[in-house]
Amino acid sequence: MKTIQINISNIKATFNSLERECQGNLIETQTERSLEFKNTIGSGNITGFNFNSNISYITYDVKFSEDTVLVFDQEKNEQSLNYLYCSQGELRQSFGATGKKTAFSEMQTAIFSNSITKANHIYIQKNSYQKFTMISFLASKPITETTDGFTTQLMELFKSKEVQGKFAYTSSYNLKIQERLDQIETVSNDSIADALLKKGMLQVSLSMIVNQYFEDVKNEANRKHGLSKTEMESIKDISEFIKNYPDYQFDLNYLSKKSGITPAKLQEGFKALFGRTVSNFIKNVRVELAEKLIKTSDLSISEIVYTIGFSSRSYFSKIFKEKYNCSPKEYQDSKTSLRMSA
Question: 2-221 has which fold?
Fold first, then answer.
């Protein structure tokens, strides 16, 4: 088994470790670091940036040619809490080389404490494509007057009784977090403004991960049972089907038959994954598509309303304004003005 040692004391140390271990090409910009490699070890693209001196964000998009373990080390007396979201594949974790392995997979978050004596080992099976995001929160740095409120709250969470010592948690399935993390990837890294946008998205993503933890704790206490992984994957497939055919006049019974999931569980799954009912999800998909068409096409508002499956222009205008704080016509006019002045 191939072992890759990664120092997560800070993002510079992390990427220096990855460059050395993976023998890749490291590129550093003003706002981001990225490492690409393709050799006998395997292939991959690893990108990351700092939120602040306590928090770093790194996405691993990798495939190794042999079974591999990533060992996340830290400097002496340092402790961290690591939030991992698995976008594709399956990972296993243990504390140390001989610890019990915990598995988590696509659409799941895992939270693990980390220290020099309880280092996280993440196991990746050979020739399997894995994509996961790791947000490391260095908890050993002291809170000062300049520490922002968000980081202070995470400090308090780390020090709470729930996460003292060797802490390990794997979440229920949640696609909303993946959508937020995917948004971070779509932002370029060309400017300070882009960096600020990414940091704002990261804060939202991390808040969702922490909230997911507390929701799972509450649901466990109330003995609530979530949907199975197979059911969640079916719901994810149905959501993609809706996105691909937004003009279809779906109803809950049709989607239930297509997915093989009862209407009640379908609603439960959409609320868990997207924070919306099925009908609200469909409506949101259509409105977002309309916004894209206004921005990129020469279709009239009436043509767009027909294209996305709405029958009432006034209803479409109402929900568009609720989401974008202006009417479709005002939005279209503003985009036209911007194109003309460019």
Answer: Jelly Rolls (2.60.120)
